[in-house]
Amino acid sequence: MRTTVLLFALVLALPAGVRAQAEHPDCEAERCAAQNAIAQQCPSCSEASNHGRYVSCVAHVVKRTVSPGCRGKAVRCAARSTCGKAGFVTCEIPTDTCDLSAGSPVTCVGNPSLSCTTDFDCGTRCRIKSSDVRCAAAGGRVGASSTCCPACAS
Q1: What is the total count of domains within the chain?
Q2: pLDDT tens digits for 10-23?
Q3: What is the C-alpha to C-alpha distance for residues 19 and 8, in angstroms, rounded to an integer?
Q4: C-alpha distances in angstroms, 116 versus 73, 85, 92?
Q5: 62: how many CB neighbours lie within 10 A of its CB?
Q6: Are 130 and 65 in contact (CB under 8 A)?
Q7: Is there a single domain that holds both residue 43 and residue 79?
């Protein structure tokens, strides 16, 4: 009981900024900051000959450059990529439908406050597919990126 009280008192003694940082690190910022090191130490996505080796390289760089709470999210971006997977594509699949029968303005079925002209305007989820044909068969369109993670600002 004394240990619990002491630990609680120590946590309360930390400045609010330190507590917030420990609880909620900005993993996107850390992932993007690690991209430079990944680019220098791992093959580029287009040069990767094996997906597993590419992800392993990224994991080693991430272990040295990203805080423990964000490592999984950073490595997951490499895992959710087409790097080292010849012929694979990122596939954007609509998550909602555009209600074209509703008249004007046309809105998304699941979010009537959102205007649309196609289902893709209503939101998408990204998946890795083995070909553009399989992407189309899933109702999706081939994405422009090699990863399902958001692009980092340059």
Answers
A1: 2
A2: 444 444 444 444 55
A3: 12
A4: 31, 33, 16
A5: 24
A6: no
A7: yes
